[in-house]
Amino acid sequence: MKVALLIILLFLTSYHSKAEERFLSHEEVPKSILSRIKEGSKHTVSQMHEQGISHFDYNEASVKFLSEVITDEHLHLSDNAKRILPEIWGAFLGEVIIEELGGKWVKFGDQYAVLVSDSHLCFPMNKVHEQIANGQIDSIYAFYLSTARIANEISSADDGA
């Protein structure tokens, strides 16, 4: 009985490790793509500054502001805007996450994500797309806050280990 239990435990541990490796297996983002992501983010900030929103920067308050803009405008965006803005605004959201919480851009499958705390992937471009499609129910601000909470919990767990 103990041997069977030990075999099951070893199998589950091995399966969990392999599943975690598969989930977190990612590639580095090519420099040309990383450059485009950073340019999209800078474009978002400069556009907000041109609109007279001088306090817009890489911080939580600006994510909240952008989330409110998306909520107010998502029903009025053209199809072209709905295609382009998730990349540009998602780049900004990802850069804020990296600036405030740490992390880096990675390629996961055919998508770009931010790897936070070496064990949490988040997909800011997808989240912007979801808020544009669905409104406030898919708020990028709530996404940012939940990502921050997860990053803090992972950091606290690492500090306690």
TrEMBL record:
Signal peptide: which range, if any?
1-19
Write down the superkingdom of origin: Bacteria
Q: Which UniProt keywords apply?
A: Signal
Name the record gives this protein: DUF3806 domain-containing protein
What organism is listed for this UniProt entry?
Answer: Paraglaciecola algarum
